[in-house]
Amino acid sequence: MNISIENLNKTYLRRGKNFNAFQTIDLKINAGEFIAIVGPSGSGKTTFLHLLAGLLTQSSGAIKYDGLDFANIPKAEKAAFINDNIGFISQGMSLIPSLCVVDNLRLPLYLSKREHQAGVEINQALALLAQLGIEDLADEYPINLSGGEQRRVAIARAVMNHPKIIIADEPTNDLDDVSKAKVLELFKQKNQAGATVIMVTHHQENLAYVNQVYTMN
Ligand SMILES: Nc1ncnc2c1ncn2[C@@H]1O[C@H](COP(=O)(O)OP(=O)(O)OP(=O)(O)O)[C@@H](O)[C@H]1O
Ligand SMILES: [Mg+2]
What we know:
Blueprint: E1 3-9, E2 11-14, E3 17-20, E4 25-29, E5 34-38, H1 45-52, E6 60-65, E7 68-69, H2 75-85, E8 86-89, H3 101-111, H4 118-131, H5 147-159, E9 165-169, H6 177-192, E10 196-200, E11 212-215
Parallel strand pairs: 5-10, 5-11, 8-9, 9-10
Antiparallel strand pairs: 1-4, 1-6, 2-3, 6-7
Helix pairs in contact: 3-4, 3-5
Bound molecules: adenosine-5'-triphosphate and magnesium ion.
């Protein structure tokens, strides 16, 4: 999927005044790219990713997926479009507390209209957890996990649905060097299989994996 970002602006209301989260963004991201977005804290990176993932609405401008304007997708279809095409890893913690790890991973599949085969899904989930070094945690609940473990579960969940686009907000925060490398290798593998990867990061070593770096000021 090609992404076209045109004249994009997001204004927040802060103490009664308009506050621009970032300056106008004009950008084309081609299918199969692996890009990093860097920049100081508060420069609007998370806001931009939330707009890309449909979690926020822009104040002006457009985001088009293969020419389809995100703003024109009917509300009832938007959630399905996002669930089927975008794997989102948020900067904060986002696991469902009442579901164990393996069920957190299965959730996006249940929300899609595809056919379900519990055995296949569980094996897929376990394989992803193993790839990230947390296969022993499949039956645990999020409250019993460390920050870095929760982050890896969220990363595994984001790729369960084979998304065409992976959007990751500081995915290697809270992780040791070995786990960081596992996460980046997973992204690399998905990118080589055709997924577009858009990653915000403050970690310089992650930039070795990407083909383009954009800076927000
Ligand atoms: N809901 C909100 N209402 C008002 N201002 C907001 C809101 N969310 C974010 N902001 C402001 O918008 C700016 C951009 O925030 P954003 O979270 O996008 O930054 P960031 O680049 O992701 O920072 P970090 O590297 O710290 O995660 C910041 O100045 C922030 O204070
Ligand atoms: Mg942020």
